[in-house]
Amino acid sequence: MKNTSPTGTVFVLVHGAWHSSGQWAATQRALAGLGAASVAVDLPGHGFDAPLPTGYLLPGQPDLLTERSRLALVTMDDCAEAVLGVLRQVRHHRTVVLVAHSAGGGPASLAAERAPELVDRIVYLSAFVPGGRPRFFDYLGSLENATALGRNLPLGDPESLGAVRINPLSPDPAYLEELRETHYHDTPVDRFDRWRSALSPDLPLTIPTTPVPLTEARWGRIPRTFLRCAEDRALAPAAQDLMIAETDQAFPGNPFTVHTLPGSHSPFAARPRELAAALAS
């Protein structure tokens, strides 16, 4: 007997940089209340199995600025395969909706390009869409993203580290305030310490730097939705709009359905019920 959800719909949730499957938990509970099943993916180098820099949890965090990441060899292919593995597991559902947040848009897009038959709709939650420009860094460095915050968060030299490294456990109040303002400015202040402590410090450098090629015949045939975050300070609304416009220009036969959510880059932290309702609709 097939194991299906009451609505026949399952959401496959792909996190963004430094996050993990765990950050989707409140949204998943809300989706369950709406009758939808969901599965959250841990991309390689994220979640409880992620290796940390050796000094990250030690007093003074020795060598944090210079120690090469143990995730430096993680590739975009590795990340896409992690998404594909989950998509294959849930294909027995009538409708499979792939949801990507932020940097997770790269692996999710590549997975959908490689196996479009596994995805009935793809949703980008303030996420990288490689339809117009193939690398996430191409949009992060755009003029449209000039108002974004967080430029002082990366530590050391990403090329030498093999990762974009941040320090969620920093003892510097100014650094933590920048982290909060960038990603969680509308999350209750008394919950921010819990959210930052769950972040991983390293994002494999290949995720924002590897080009993701898409084709009309494969990725382009999948219905797609973009959920804009109106007060996003990590990926400016203008940069989100640029991705939507450039993708629709490159793939005009199947344009985005666009909805706007209030608030920050992290609605799964600030308003998970509203996010679940937007997804379920």
Automatic annotation (TrEMBL):
Matching Pfam families: Abhydrolase_6
SUPFAM superfamilies: alpha/beta-Hydrolases
Molecular function terms from GO: hydrolase activity
Domain AB hydrolase-1: 11-278
Gene3D superfamilies, per the entry: alpha/beta hydrolase
Coiled coil regions, renumbered to chain: none
Keywords from the UniProt entry: Hydrolase
InterPro entries tied to this protein: AB_hydrolase_1, AB_hydrolase_fold, Sec-Metab_Biosynth_Hydrolase
Entry keyword Hydrolase: yes
Transmembrane annotation, as ranges: none
Protein name as it appears in the record: Alpha/beta fold hydrolase
